[in-house]
Amino acid sequence: MKSQYDLSNYPLWTALVTPFDANNQVDYNILRTLVCEQAQANNGILLLGSTGEGLALTTEEHQHIVRYVCDLNLDVPLMVAVGGANLQEQIAWVEFCNTLPIHAFLLGSPLYAKPGIVGQAHWFDALLSASDLPCMLYNVPGRSAVAIDPQVLQNLTHHTNLWALKEASGDIAVFEAFRKAAPQLAIYSGDDGLMPYFAQAGATGLVSVAANAWPQQTAEFVRRSMAGTFPNLFTTWTDAVDSLFTVANPIPVKVLMHAQGKLNTPNLRPPLTHLELPCTQAINSANTTILSWN
């Protein structure tokens, strides 16, 4: 298992958006700016997750994006998402990424099929076996239509590269069940707004959407959450962050980043569209709140 970084030193991972130009092609100049901004904030970077619209991109685009970011020689770790419904295709993707200077994988549940404990364990076992890198499993039943069963984690403990779990069910009881089933795993919150709760329950960190728009501020939010000495975090942060999830992610954060001047367009790949968010008052208000937050 290779990684030049101690991943435990990175409590915040930004699930990076994929910027598109006016022709809805990947805007690599903007991509460079975005990843450099995250590196400056010392945030780990996750490429091609659901926030990065990974499932709407072609295999060629996946490969080009990962190669491009690797060639920037950033001084923060890179994680690459693995997700879909075809196991052999995902194994091939893992094997391709094994040849590049990345540092971790995010392994998503298989989509649509809704496998049980045996099917889930087989899926993750195959991907973990193919990987040369530390792996974070991703529990997001709202997108995959199936929740990872805690028993699955117990069935996978023989894999030395099973490093972490991203928990995005929004249920603190589920978080506790995972901690009991696999106490050796680092568990990251997959919900920005719940980070203070998850930190109190023993979370290692956050995989964040909000950090795209507010990289420095989100890093400070995670530090304060982990410290547990700032009881006003919910009143000063959560309401603002919730504005990024009024419609499907990453629509609001891309609209906000366009308004901030970080993106040249708010474009998304179909079936997502920025036209789902005709009113931007909430995200603009959130931006004012967070940028003045201290």
UniProtKB/TrEMBL annotation:
GO terms for biological process: diaminopimelate biosynthetic process; lysine biosynthetic process via diaminopimelate. Belongs to the DapA family. PROSITE patterns: DHDPS_1, DHDPS_2. The record marks S50, Y112 as: Part of a proton relay during catalysis. Its EC number is 4.3.3.7. Keywords: Amino-acid biosynthesis, Cytoplasm, Diaminopimelate biosynthesis, Lyase, Lysine biosynthesis, Schiff base. Homotetramer; dimer of dimers. It holds the Pfam family DHDPS. GO terms for molecular function: 4-hydroxy-tetrahydrodipicolinate synthase activity. GO terms for cellular component: cytosol. Gene3D superfamilies: Aldolase class I. The active site is at Y138 (proton donor/acceptor), K166 (schiff-base intermediate with substrate). Pathway: Amino-acid biosynthesis; L-lysine biosynthesis via DAP pathway; (S)-tetrahydrodipicolinate from L-aspartate: step 3/4. InterPro entries: Aldolase_TIM (IPR013785), DapA (IPR005263), DapA-like (IPR002220), Schiff_base-form_aldolases_AS (IPR020625), Schiff_base-form_aldolases_CS (IPR020624). It is found in: Cytoplasm. It catalyses: L-aspartate 4-semialdehyde + pyruvate = (2S,4S)-4-hydroxy-2,3,4,5-tetrahydrodipicolinate + H2O + H(+). This is 4-hydroxy-tetrahydrodipicolinate synthase. The keyword Lyase applies. It comes from Pseudoalteromonas aurantia. It is an enzyme of class 4 (lyase). Pyruvate binds at T51, V207. The gene is dapA. Catalyzes the condensation of (S)-aspartate-beta-semialdehyde [(S)-ASA] and pyruvate to 4-hydroxy-tetrahydrodipicolinate (HTPA). Coiled coil: none annotated.
